[in-house]
Structure formats: C-alpha cells, structure tokens
Amino acid sequence: MTSEQFRRIWFRFGELVTEHRDELNRLDAAIGDADHGTNLARGLAKVAADLGADGSPTHLAASCRQVGMALLSTVGGASGALWGSALLRAAGALPEAETCDTATAVAAARQAVDAIQSRGHAELGDKTMVDVWRPALALLEASVAEGMSGRKAAVAVAERAVTLADETAPLVARRGRASYLGARSAGHVDPGSVSTALFWRAVADIVATS
Ligand code: ADP
Ligand code: MG
C-alpha cells in the first residue's frame, strides 16, 4: 500500500458515506438516535480536509494518526471513539514511509480491529460493527496467507462485508445504544456494520484500480 492509496481510500470512503448518509441515518433511527450517517460524514469531511491540506504528512504512519485524530475529534457518538482508536492503533503498525507491503497493511488492519474490541468490549454476535470487522479481517488474513494478492483479497473482503452487514439483522443488540431496545433491536440491520462495509468497498475501489 502506498500513502497515496491510503489517502485516496479515505477520500473514497467519505464519498460513499455522503452518498449513503440518509440511509445510515434511517438505519440508526430504527435502533438508535438517527445520527450515524451524519456523524461519519462530518468526520470524513474533516479527514479529507486534513489529508488534503498543504503540509499534511505524507508517510503512512503519520497520515493514519492524522485520520485517527480527526475521527476522534469530529465524528462523535460511540462510532467516533471506536474509529479513532482503530486508526491510532493501526498507525503503530505502519512505517514512517511512503509504502508498505501487504503483510504490514494486514497487520495494521488487525491492530484496528483489536482496538475496536478493546475499546468497545463487543464480541461477535453483539450486533455491532465488530460483526463485520472481525470476520472481514479473518477472510483478509486467510486470503493473503493462501497467496492471494492484496488487491484480489480486498475485493473479496468488500463483497463479504456486504453480506456480513445484512446478517446483523436478526441479532439482538448487546452493546451500544441499540442494546437499550433489547429484543426489539432484532429485525433491523446495524448501521455501523453497513458503514464498515462501505469502508471495505472504498479499500477495494482504490486498491483494485491503482
Ligand atoms: P451513537 O450510538 O453514539 O449514536 P453512532 O450512531 O455514530 O453512535 O454509531 C452507532 C454504531 O456504533 C452502531 O451501529 C454499532 O455498529 C457501533 N457501536 C456502538 N457501540 C459499540 C461497541 N461497544 N462496540 C462496537 N461497535 C459499537
Ligand atoms: Mg447514533
């Protein structure tokens, strides 16, 4: 992965979240407080402004830290703290360099998922973004271990992430705001899982075309 690809992933993710903002808000209205699309779109606008600013860092670790700080300070809600922690932890696995190999990028993704779980204490099946992040990471690691290119693996993960997000519908929420609804949270797709699938689509869109 190059730092240019890293930046473009965040611009693309911002575009996708803006396109899907109302849908994410509607999903959050059903089991939360209707702000998930607005929260993420606001944070990603700040990320894009920071990454595009004159003098912004060009190395992977510094860029990743910059994204994490922007998300932490502007997204708000539960998802802001989780995405912020994820990126700050991932930065520790990335080099102060313009490029890294696929294994290093995958290791950074693992750090991000571990941070989401240590910060939010959600396990698989709790109807949170972890229900997409954890199996998506497992597929990424298995695909790369089998010798698949990072590019092909990203496309496979992006496709699987859409299914994983859909599969949160029957679950009963045990973490976050949706857990206040108890059994009534079943029958609705988790908004943070859908935005996580959009992130993987952004990754696939950028690495598959550059
Ligand atoms: P808030 O719930 O504070 O309004 P958002 O609406 O931005 O924040 O984000 C809600 C999403 O955050 C949920 O759909 C879920 O995927 C995710 N989430 C909430 N709590 C947790 C948690 N403890 N661990 C992992 N993900 C969580
Ligand atoms: Mg919300």
Write a concise keyword list for the protein shown above.
single chain; 210 residues; mainly alpha; Serine Threonine Protein Phosphatase 5, Tetratricopeptide repeat; 9 helices; 0% strand; globular; binds adenosine-5'-diphosphate; binds magnesium ion
Q: What would you say about this model in short?
A:
This protein is mostly helical and 210 residues long. It contains nine helices and no strands. It is globular and about 50 Å long.
Describe this structure in words.
With 210 residues, this protein is mainly alpha-helical. The chain has one domain (3-207): DhaL domain (Serine Threonine Protein Phosphatase 5, Tetratricopeptide repeat). Helix content is 70%, strand content 0%. It contains 9 helices and no strands. The protein has helices spanning 3-19, 21-31, 36-52, 60-74, 77-91, 102-120, 130-145, 150-166, 191-209. Helix 1 runs parallel beside helix 4. The longest helix is centred in the middle third of the chain and has 19 residues, at 102-120. The protein starts with a helix and ends with a helix. The model has no long low-confidence stretch (mean pLDDT 97). The structure holds adenosine-5'-diphosphate (ADP) and magnesium ion. Adenosine-5'-diphosphate is lined by residues 28, 32-33, 35-36, 39, 77-79, 82, 116, 120-122, 128-130, 175-177, 190-193.
